Amino acid sequence: SAIALRAETAAQHGMAGRHLCYLALGGNVGDSLRYISRAVRRVANLPGVRLRRTSSLFKTAPQYVTEQPAFLNAVAELELAPDRLRDLHGLLSELKAIEAEIGRVSGGPRRGPRVVDLDLLAVGEEPLTLTDCTYPLNLPHAQMHERDFVLVPLAELCPEWRHPLLEGRPTVRTMLERVLRSEGMPGQGPAGAHSQERPCQVIPAAGGLHGRAQGWYWERGAQTHIMGILNVTPDSFSDGGKHLQLEDAVASAQAMVNAGASIIDVGGETTKPGAAEVSVEQEIERVVPVIRALRERGMDVTISVDTRKAAVARAAVEAGADWINDVSGGEFDSAMLPLAAELMAPVVLMHMKGTPETMNSLVSYECVVGEVRDHLLARRRAAEEAGVPAWNIILDPGIGFAKKIDENLTLLRRCGELVDALHPSPLLVSASRKKFLGTILGETDATQRTFGNAACTAAAVAAGADFVRAHDVREMCQTARVSDHIYRRSAQGLRTTSAL
After folding, report:
1. Cis peptide before 140 (omega within 30 of 0)
2. d(CA 257, CA 298)
3. Is the pLDDT assigned to residue 52 strictly greater than 70?
4. Distances in whole angstroms, Cα of residue 127 to Cα of each of 18, 39, 162, 174, 178
5. Which tens digits make up the pLDDT trace of 435-463?
């Protein structure tokens, strides 16, 4: 199952399970996405604590006190050093200090609205009682077994963790199954737990430490989002030289937003086959003025920077970009993944062999779907090890990069397998105007491959991809909108629970 694919045991990482601590994160007041991002960074920087990975991020209905806004919830898996393990009351005090630093104030209704909430769920699988401290605590958390907003994210991380105090020592998977089966049964679980609003995975449109003025997210599965391509290069394969003037670039970005683009992807280095590397300084000179101009003119849209270089990504994000789109999957520049973790910026990790200069000589696969899948899973693990939360990782199979026509078509044909195998990471597909379409269509002019692009977009939507990167934004938005109506299921929560 998808959850089984996602789960990794402590034994696989060579550590005792008792060193693992699970921390619930939530909030529903103000800019919750950014508050949770700040909390994660602060927790990761605590002495004796290592952020191993996180769950996805979920929008959840309020429970217990139901007359309040929806929450954002996630779970983090932490590794505790021995000294920290012996001082859990100190850890709890530091978590409360982080809550206060971000803006949570004491008082107010119990279980009511809050800026941010950091709750220890469990340390290993042993019951613990902390009474000789400022904040008395029993572990595992007393109500975790009845809360879908805890169990759904926890099941992504440790579905086989066992509750030591409940009869039969049920696993997280079993506890979640019981909660889901109890839907609609009076007296089973907290108030509000039996609404039809099960936890819904969300994807940050903007939730890092820079970018859009307000954090923003999309509910996964509600629609397919179009990423509009804005190349500010003289030599890109289909639109090189079109956006070299700042006003032309801004006008094109605005036109794409008006046509329905959810994201504008600004690139300053062509990555077409055989392309030579551009210097960091030149790439920054190309992309930063455009990103800054888009923000200064009030364009409140998600902006992505298409770059392999950490220095360019930093400059772009500090100028107002939200996402990093790295065609090398973080392999070209070893500083890229730590940077994404530092800035809490969503990052797209793509499959590619070699570099744009060498990739066409490296087209050799026994099974392209399996190799792409395994590579992307490895890059996701690398991102998590660098401290990037799972909710900030988007994966891209790299259509057209070190792949011939048959490999490209196979990846599109079997895209649904990748969506399932890479769950819970969202998938981005970028086939726009690629050479293999020209070969099929007999069309040498890349700008005249719109209907071929539309076929790829429809295939991606049917497979369950979350994002499609495109030059022809208006046409692809129309294609995606109709395809969504044909293929998308309205009950997004089913993707999460069906993984059981």
Report:
1. yes
2. 12
3. yes
4. 11, 26, 11, 19, 22
5. 999 999 999 999 999 999 999 999 999 99
Tokens read off for 205: 């449109």
Active-site residue set: 434, 469
Structure tokens at 434: 């690629």
Q: How far apart are CA 327 and CA 287, in angstroms?
A: 16
Query: What one-character-per-residue DSSP string does 224-247 give?
Result: PEEEEEEE--S--TTTTTTT-SHH
Q: Which residue has the higher pLDDT, 106 or 391?
A: 391
Is 265 strand, coil or helix?
strand
Inter-residue contact 411 to 399 (CB < 8 Å): yes
Beta bridge partners of 128: 139
- pLDDT of residue 185 exceeding 50, the answer is no
**Predicted confidence (pLDDT) at residue 1 exceeds the cutoff of 70:** no
Mapped onto helix, strand or coil, the DSSP state of residue 383 is helix
- Cα 13 to chain centroid distance, Å, stands at 23
Calpha distance 281→286 (Å, rounded): 9
List phi, psi (to 5°) of 434. -70, 160
pLDDT tens-place string over residues 105-149:
877 778 889 999 999 999 999 899 877 666 678 899 989 999 999
Q: What is the mean pLDDT of residues 13-40?
A: 85
pLDDT digits (tens, 9 = 90+) for 335-348: 999 999 999 999 99
Cα angle vertex 73, ends 303, 468, to 5°?
35
β-strand 302-306 against 323-326: which pairing, if any? parallel
Q: Residue 38 CB: number of other CB atoms within 10 A?
A: 19
Radius of gyration of the chain (CA): 23
How far, in whole angstroms, is CA 141 from its chain's centroid? 27
pLDDT of residue 196: 62
What single DSSP character describes residue 277? P
Total residue length of the chain: 500
Residue 323's closest CA among 269, 392, 381?
Answer: 392
pLDDT in tens, 465-481: 999 999 999 999 999 99
Two structure tokens written together for 244:
């070299």
Kindly state the helix (H) or strand (E) to which residue 148 belongs, with its residue range. Answer: helix 148-157
Residue 447 in tokens: 């700008």
Give whole-number Cα distances, 200 to 18, 112, 220, in Å: 30, 20, 7
Give residue-wise pLDDT tens across range 248-284: 999 999 999 999 999 999 999 988 777 778 999 999 9
How far from 164 is each of 88, 91, 120, 172, CA to CA, in Å? 19, 22, 16, 11
Spatial separation of the C-alpha atoms in residues 58 and 41, rounded to whole Å: 18
57 or 190, higher pLDDT: 57
The residues pairing with 349 across neighbouring beta strands, listed in sequence order, are: 326, 395
394 torsion bin: left (phi>0), alpha (psi -120 to 50), beta (else)? beta
Written as one string, the DSSP assignment of 355-378 is -TTTGGGG---S-HHHHHHHHHHH
